[in-house]
Amino acid sequence: MAKICPKGFRPEDLENPTPIFHLLYAQTVMDGRWKLMILDYLADGIKRFNEIQKHLNNLSQGSLTKQLKEMDTDGLILKTIHPEVPPRVDYQLTEKGRDLLPILELMVEYGEKHTKDGNYKNHIKA
Question: How far is residue 6 from each of residues 9, 12, 34, 114, measured CA to CA in Å?
Protein backbone atom coordinates (compact mmCIF):
# COMPACT_ATOMS: atom_id res chain seq x y z
CA MET A 1 0.00 0.00 0.00
CA ALA A 2 1.18 3.48 -0.77
CA LYS A 3 1.70 6.09 1.92
CA ILE A 4 -1.60 7.44 3.15
CA CYS A 5 -0.44 11.04 3.14
CA PRO A 6 2.45 12.38 1.04
CA LYS A 7 3.82 14.26 4.04
CA GLY A 8 3.09 11.40 6.41
CA PHE A 9 1.38 11.55 9.76
CA ARG A 10 2.77 12.48 13.13
CA PRO A 11 3.07 9.57 15.58
CA GLU A 12 0.21 11.03 17.64
CA ASP A 13 -2.02 10.89 14.53
CA LEU A 14 -1.44 7.16 14.39
CA GLU A 15 -2.02 6.67 18.12
CA ASN A 16 -5.33 8.58 18.02
CA PRO A 17 -6.55 8.36 14.42
CA THR A 18 -9.02 11.02 13.33
CA PRO A 19 -11.89 10.55 10.86
CA ILE A 20 -9.76 12.07 8.08
CA PHE A 21 -7.08 9.42 8.76
CA HIS A 22 -9.70 6.69 8.30
CA LEU A 23 -11.00 8.35 5.14
CA LEU A 24 -7.51 8.58 3.68
CA TYR A 25 -6.86 4.93 4.58
CA ALA A 26 -10.00 3.83 2.72
CA GLN A 27 -9.03 5.98 -0.26
CA THR A 28 -5.55 4.48 -0.28
CA VAL A 29 -6.67 0.83 -0.39
CA MET A 30 -9.01 1.62 -3.30
CA ASP A 31 -6.48 3.81 -5.11
CA GLY A 32 -5.38 2.35 -8.41
CA ARG A 33 -6.69 2.67 -11.91
CA TRP A 34 -8.26 -0.82 -12.02
CA LYS A 35 -8.95 -1.73 -8.39
CA LEU A 36 -12.59 -0.65 -8.31
CA MET A 37 -13.34 -2.67 -11.43
CA ILE A 38 -11.50 -5.69 -10.03
CA LEU A 39 -13.41 -5.44 -6.74
CA ASP A 40 -16.70 -5.23 -8.63
CA TYR A 41 -15.85 -8.20 -10.86
CA LEU A 42 -14.71 -10.37 -7.95
CA ALA A 43 -17.99 -9.66 -6.15
CA ASP A 44 -19.47 -12.41 -8.33
CA GLY A 45 -17.07 -15.02 -6.95
CA ILE A 46 -13.73 -16.67 -7.58
CA LYS A 47 -12.02 -15.72 -10.84
CA ARG A 48 -8.83 -16.73 -12.59
CA PHE A 49 -6.22 -14.26 -13.79
CA ASN A 50 -7.18 -14.61 -17.47
CA GLU A 51 -10.85 -14.03 -16.70
CA ILE A 52 -10.04 -10.79 -14.90
CA GLN A 53 -7.70 -9.71 -17.69
CA LYS A 54 -10.36 -10.32 -20.37
CA HIS A 55 -12.99 -8.50 -18.31
CA LEU A 56 -10.68 -5.48 -18.23
CA ASN A 57 -10.34 -5.47 -22.03
CA ASN A 58 -7.06 -7.37 -22.02
CA LEU A 59 -5.27 -5.07 -19.61
CA SER A 60 -1.55 -5.78 -19.76
CA GLN A 61 -0.31 -8.64 -17.63
CA GLY A 62 2.10 -6.34 -15.78
CA SER A 63 -0.53 -3.75 -14.88
CA LEU A 64 -3.00 -6.37 -13.69
CA THR A 65 -0.33 -8.22 -11.72
CA LYS A 66 0.65 -4.98 -9.96
CA GLN A 67 -2.93 -4.15 -8.98
CA LEU A 68 -3.64 -7.70 -7.77
CA LYS A 69 -0.42 -7.80 -5.76
CA GLU A 70 -1.30 -4.52 -4.01
CA MET A 71 -4.81 -5.76 -3.30
CA ASP A 72 -3.43 -9.03 -1.91
CA THR A 73 -0.92 -7.16 0.27
CA ASP A 74 -3.72 -4.91 1.57
CA GLY A 75 -5.85 -7.95 2.40
CA LEU A 76 -8.65 -7.14 -0.05
CA ILE A 77 -8.28 -10.34 -2.05
CA LEU A 78 -7.08 -13.86 -1.45
CA LYS A 79 -4.74 -15.34 -4.04
CA THR A 80 -4.78 -19.15 -4.18
CA ILE A 81 -2.10 -20.98 -6.15
CA HIS A 82 -3.10 -24.56 -6.94
CA PRO A 83 -0.21 -27.03 -7.18
CA GLU A 84 -0.83 -28.10 -10.76
CA VAL A 85 1.11 -28.02 -13.98
CA PRO A 86 0.61 -25.44 -15.31
CA PRO A 87 -0.19 -23.65 -12.05
CA ARG A 88 -3.73 -22.40 -11.63
CA VAL A 89 -4.21 -19.17 -9.69
CA ASP A 90 -7.57 -18.05 -8.34
CA TYR A 91 -8.55 -14.70 -6.83
CA GLN A 92 -11.44 -13.95 -4.52
CA LEU A 93 -12.54 -11.17 -2.21
CA THR A 94 -11.73 -11.42 1.46
CA GLU A 95 -14.10 -10.11 4.11
CA LYS A 96 -12.11 -6.87 4.07
CA GLY A 97 -12.62 -6.64 0.30
CA ARG A 98 -16.35 -7.46 0.55
CA ASP A 99 -16.69 -4.67 3.11
CA LEU A 100 -15.94 -2.24 0.26
CA LEU A 101 -18.87 -3.41 -1.91
CA PRO A 102 -21.48 -1.15 -0.26
CA ILE A 103 -19.15 1.79 -0.92
CA LEU A 104 -19.00 0.81 -4.59
CA GLU A 105 -22.80 0.67 -4.69
CA LEU A 106 -22.98 4.20 -3.24
CA MET A 107 -20.46 5.35 -5.84
CA VAL A 108 -22.68 3.89 -8.59
CA GLU A 109 -25.69 5.76 -7.18
CA TYR A 110 -23.65 8.97 -7.06
CA GLY A 111 -22.53 8.46 -10.66
CA GLU A 112 -26.07 7.77 -11.84
CA LYS A 113 -27.36 10.88 -10.11
CA HIS A 114 -24.65 13.20 -11.39
CA THR A 115 -24.25 12.04 -14.99
CA LYS A 116 -27.83 12.73 -16.03
CA ASP A 117 -26.95 16.28 -17.08
CA GLY A 118 -24.21 15.16 -19.50
CA ASN A 119 -21.46 17.14 -17.73
CA TYR A 120 -19.40 14.00 -17.19
CA LYS A 121 -17.79 14.12 -20.63
CA ASN A 122 -14.82 16.15 -19.33
CA HIS A 123 -13.96 13.32 -16.94
CA ILE A 124 -14.43 10.18 -19.02
CA LYS A 125 -12.30 9.27 -22.02
CA ALA A 126 -13.56 6.80 -24.60
Answer: 9, 17, 21, 30
